[in-house]
Specification:
heterotrimer; A: alpha+beta; Pnp Oxidase, Chain A; 3 domains; 9-stranded antiparallel beta sheet; 24% strand; B: alpha+beta; 5-stranded mixed beta sheet; 27% helix; 25% strand; globular
């Protein structure tokens, strides 16, 4: 998809987006309506009439979110991202991860253009005014208005390496933002170099643009990997780039809004409070971003996410992209051919579920420990791993939960790990643990014991295990005709021949 | 209220359909029910009027109490005469209130008992006159699942009503899962078989659906379920004397099966797919000799599918067991307990207790009480969450999973017992030795509560939408959303 | 008489010697259509060849899984279901 508009049209055509035509205040109202839609498993929203801003300056939310996996809904939490990728929104999760792997393994490098919609309006220096854009106020107690689903572009001080990563920023005033660099990200590492060298870090914040750019900004790429190439590979087309007005960085031509400037190596300001992970984080000093220029389309659409409410766009993207990268590393770095990896929002991103056939004795321990060992690279968001075998559906969290609780003997299947890094999303770290700098970890082996013979292993007696496959399909076909409500769902992976 | 009255109630609320297409009792009808269980908010109660070979003779009643995971108590509340949108606290409190006022049943004349419309005696007894379903393809036979087993203690006269699965063996033989730890089976083993005398029994399908809640309740030994059924219904159960045994059965039952359990006889029972989600294997079990069957015209036979989610048996157990535990905890002095639920993705596992933390050893004392409770037989794990975590509303399960993700340090907050726990043979984690001895299970607690010694600075409260927006803004958002 | 029967592996094992010798056995079988259990006297074999008029006898495991087919020629259906025949 070329840009945000093409994507939003595709969402609308498949019933995933609704226009909000009535006047909406960007101060809390847009966010509250978004929160309502999140909770009702509702559509993405395009706020076409934003109070107090010029006609054509609009907001959009819910573009990248989905209903979680605890209740069967009409679509899955990866469905909208599939639409953005041009895939069938109901493709199974393992196929979805397979598509991601295929595309990310074949980067398509960007092309440079001289013009682009992102340059339709250019404001430089004193003309650049952050207050002219409807950045929403997302929650009552927030420290200011926020930019959320945006891609920060910056270059390493000593090399050509450019990163595109999601960074949230709070508006301080007309020409200053303050931004939070999560500690595990490349951008934090890159900025640290500038800071040590006492040099300002040139940046561009790209808002909107090709949806795969947004996806890429949530993907923990390896050092030195070209995010533009990855975004191109995901889009199946090169990303078109154009040079920024006030620095030598390149921005997507199809962006909605681009903010250019420098991150100060010494100026800080309080960023927050903000409910990043479903609890309020107090205001903390963060680097100040001095804005040098703002360019945008004539009628810019600013996409946003309402964190603090589940399931938000930000966290849904984190779930999809981090679990993908774990899947990628398990397969390509460690040669563990896992079937899928999920990081359910229901557990606040703290659990990683690995689905794989246990190929050899000890496979479960190795693959689980590998995931635990990688936690720091993913923001230390998780410290618990659940391993389920390949006869587990990815469509409903109830199956992994059943296996984790009903099928696993506590003293046989639960394995504890002494020290894991402390993540920003947990509430169980005591003052002492914070001082020490670690909490503990866990991996749960839900598979049947390796010394059990097929005679010992009982059949799963759900729909797929208790009835012949042809009967299940016949019943699904007749289901509505008989007068039943709802849509039949079949967990294909769980059929066991009888 | 009998099952027919209850079906009418469901029909009036648009929650019941009738299916006249021919379906087989051998898996096919049940497959529709299994599919229906899974569809969220679509647990449509359904009556199969045309069961192959039984049209006009008997009917199957599926999803009679199965409910959405966000409101597992929905149909249970309706059986109790509450509205279909009754909240969990409303149902719980009403259950507790009625629990304190049992009503002794009254006996009616056989002439007034509709369960006597038809009688099969002796050589005419034929269990296969009814469409007992084949519930799972690997089951060892056809099963009765939603029914009431009646047996009397010969010494005290105490009559136990319980729900134990029953496999149809032949025209006049049944066998069932008779696990010694449960009351009815213990009466048989200790008071009859030990003395080598046959035990009169009745096995009842139908009657008042509220009986399921009395029969499933953990009453102390000696308490008569019939009294509690009357208390729940707020009027005495009307019972009638069985034809061939000195036992009393609900007068409006659909089918009454009478006979004796013979001492020291065994037949192989099972395998059957069970509530654990897995098949439980074949094992020798006591034998029921059937002497008489009485039944109504075109009986309505409810059933449940063990192991499929969200099943009728889940709905019953998840409605009543948490309430019982809540009550027992308060009686035992754990008054800081705010509510008790089960995770709806499991059946009797994943019990959740929301509790305050009033003194340093409280959590471990509560843990000890829970770990020695009978409810642990059917599950392994339980969770404690803070008293202010909402486990009473429709998002209760999500709130618990959030706590498990963010409020449990594995080494500090997960407590495992030794492998010295009794467990039923149905526990899928048990190996051969464990299955034979019945010991070897363990318990696991996820303590997601705030440690007693934490200071205010250490405590982090999660936010909900109500914490993020002023209520005026939220209200406007709700109404704008409706209009979209 | 049924068109096919089922029998548990364990029950077949108990009379394996007699089956191997081609002798008559008394076993409990399950009617594959009605799932009624009856005790029968008959001859069991791996194939129909030496058992004219034999019908399929599906063998199942303790967990209800399929364990292959044998054949049974039923000589007599017994009146009383023998709990001893089924006893393990």
């Amino acid at each position: 998809m070329r840009n945000l508009r093409v994507y939003m049209k595709a969402l609308e055509e498949s019933g995933h987006l609704k226009a909000v035509k009535g006047e909406t205040d960007s101060n809390l109202e847009a966010a509250a309506l978004t929160a309502q839609s999140y909770q009702e498993v509702g559509p993405a929203l395009h706020f076409q009439n934003v109070k107090g801003y010029p006609k054509g300056f609009t907001l959009a939310s819910g573009l990248f979110t989905g209903p979680g996996n605890l209740f069967l809904e009409k679509f899955k939490y990866w469905s909208r991202v599939c639409i953005a990728m041009g895939l069938d929104p109901m493709v199974t999760y393992d196929k979805f991860q397979g598509f991601l792997l295929e595309r990310i393994s074949h980067p398509i490098y960007p092309v440079q253009l001289n013009t682009g919609p992102a340059k339709q309006v250019i404001h430089k220096g004193a003309d650049a005014d952050l207050n002219a854009l409807p950045f929403p106020r997302l929650h009552e107690k927030d420290g200011g208005r926020y930019g959320t689903l945006q891609t920060m572009i910056a270059q390493d001080l000593d090399s050509d390496w450019v990163v595109w990563e999601n960074v949230r920023t709070m508006v301080l005033d007309k020409n200053r933002l303050v931004g939070h660099f999560p500690s595990h990200t490349h951008i934090a590492e890159i900025f640290a170099k500038y800071k040590a060298a006492k040099k300002p870090m040139p940046f561009c914040l790209s808002i909107g643009g090709p949806p795969m750019v947004t996806l890429t900004s949530f993907l923990p790429l390896g050092k030195g990997v070209s995010p533009a190439g990855v975004a191109g590979g995901l889009t199946l087309d090169p990303i078109e780039l154009i040079k920024a007005e006030t620095n030598s960085l390149f921005i997507p031509t199809e962006a909605e809004v681009v903010i250019e400037g420098e991150v100060s190596p010494k100026d800080t300001a309080p960023e927050g409070p903000y409910p990043e992970f479903w609890f309020y984080r107090e205001a903390q000093p963060a680097p100040v971003f001095h804005v040098k220029a703002i360019t945008h389309r004539k009628d810019p659409i600013i996409p946003f996410s309402v964190d603090g409410v589940k399931p938000s766009d930000t966290h849904n993207l984190m779930s999809l992209m981090i679990s993908f990268e774990l899947y990628n590393r398990l397969i390509n770095v460690r040669n563990f051919p896992v079937k899928w990896v999920q990081m359910p929002l229901e557990f606040n991103l703290n659990f990683v579920i690995i689905c794989s056939k246990p190929y050899f004795p000890g496979y479960v321990a190795w693959s689980s420990k590998y995931v635990l060992s990688q936690a720091r690279h993913f923001g230390a968001l998780y410290n618990k791993v659940v391993f389920v075998d390949d006869k587990t559906t990815s469509l409903h969290l109830e199956e992994p939960i059943l296996f984790m609780i009903q099928r696993t003997h506590p003293n046989r299947g639960y394995h504890f790990w002494d020290q894991m890094p402390i993540g920003p999303n947990i509430r169980f770290a005591s003052a002492e643990q914070k001082k020490k700098g670690y909490v503990s970890g866990l991996y749960i082996d839900t598979t049947w014991p390796m010394d059990w013979t097929p005679d010992d292993i009982p059949r799963r007696c759900n729909l797929e295990g208790a009835y012949p496959e042809e009967m299940v399909r016949k019943v699904a076909a007749n289901y509505k005709k008989f007068g039943f409500k709802g849509t039949p769902v079949i967990f294909e992976e769980e059929f066991v021949p009888f | 209220m009998d099952y027919r009255d209850y079906a009418e109630l469901l029909r009036k609320e648009g929650m019941l359909i009738e299916i006249n297409e021919e379906v087989s009792w051998n898996l096919e009808a049940i497959c529709y029910t299994a599919m229906n269980y899974r569809v969220e908010n679509g647990q449509t109660a359904h009556i199969f009027n045309n069961v192959k070979g039984y049209k006009g003779k008997a009917r199957l009643f599926g999803s009679f109490v199965a409910s959405p995971k966000k409101a597992p108590h929905q149909k249970s509340a309706m059986i109790f005469g509450l509205p279909k949108d009754a909240t969990w606290p409303t149902f719980r409190d009403e259950f507790l209130r009625r629990f304190d006022h049992p009503l002794k049943p009254i006996v009616v004349e056989a002439g007034d008992a509709v369960c006597k419309q038809h009688v099969m005696m002796g050589k005419d007894v034929n269990l296969f006159a009814f469409p007992w379903p084949m519930i799972h393809q690997s089951d060892g036979g056809r099963y009765g699942t939603i029914q009431t087993h009646i047996i009397e203690d010969p010494d005290t006269g105490w009559v136990n009503w319980g729900n134990y699965r029953m496999m149809i063996v032949s025209k006049n033989r049944m066998t069932g899962l008779v696990v010694g730890v449960q009351h009815g089976p213990s009466i048989f083993y200790q008071k009859y078989e030990a003395r080598n005398i046959p035990a009169p029994f009745c096995y009842v399908v139908g009657g008042d659906p509220i009986i399921n809640f009395a029969a499933g309740t953990n009453l102390p030994a000696g308490a008569a379920e019939a009294d509690y059924a009357g208390g729940f219904r707020q009027e005495p159960m009307k019972l009638v004397r069985a034809e061939t045994q000195k036992l009393y059965v609900p007068a409006d039952a659909e089918i009454v099966i009478e006979g004796v359990m013979m001492p020291y006889e065994r037949l192989d029972e099972g395998p059957q797919g069970e509530y654990t989600g897995f098949v439980h294997g074949r094992a020798p079990m006591p034998v029921y000799h059937v002497h008489c069957i009485t039944y109504r015209d075109n009986p309505l036979i409810p059933y449940s599918i063990g192991g499929a989610t969200f099943s009728d048996e889940q709905a019953i157990s998840q409605s009543l067991t948490p309430v019982e535990i809540y009550r027992q905890l308060h009686v035992a002095g754990f008054k800081a307990v705010k509510d008790v639920r089960f995770l709806p993705d499991l059946l009797w596992d994943g019990m959740v207790i929301a509790t305050d933390n009033p003194y340093p050893s409280y959590i471990q004392e509560l843990r000890a009480w829970m770990e020695c409770h009978k409810v642990g037989l059917w599950g392994t794990q339980f969770m404690f969450v803070d008293g202010d975590v909402d486990i009473s509303g429709p998002d209760f399960a999500s709130n618990v999973y959030q706590e498990m993700g963010t409020k449990a340090d594995p080494k500090r907050d997960l407590f495992r017992s030794d492998n010295d726990h009794l467990c039923t043979p149905l526990n899928p984690t048990m190996d051969e030795k464990g299955k034979k001895t019945g010991v070897g299970a363990a318990r696991l607690l996820w303590d997601c509560t705030t440690p007693y010694e934490w200071t205010k600075e250490e405590i982090v409260k999660p936010v909900k939408a109500a914490d993020l927006f002023p209520s005026k803004v939220l209200d406007k958002a709700k109404s704008v959303y409706k209009g979209l | 008489m049924a068109e096919a029967y089922q029998i548990f592996e364990a029950w077949v094992k108990k009379v394996k010697n007699q089956i191997d010798k081609g002798e008559e056995v008394t076993v409990t079988v399950i009617d594959a259509d009605t799932f009624e259990k009856i005790t029968v006297r008959g001859k069991i074999g791996e194939s129909k060849e030496n058992l004219p008029g034999a019908i399929p006898l599906k063998v199942i495991s303790d967990l209800g899984e399929k364990r292959g087919n044998m054949f049974i020629k039923v000589i007599e259906e017994m009146d009383e279901l023998s709990s001893k025949a089924a006893e393990t």
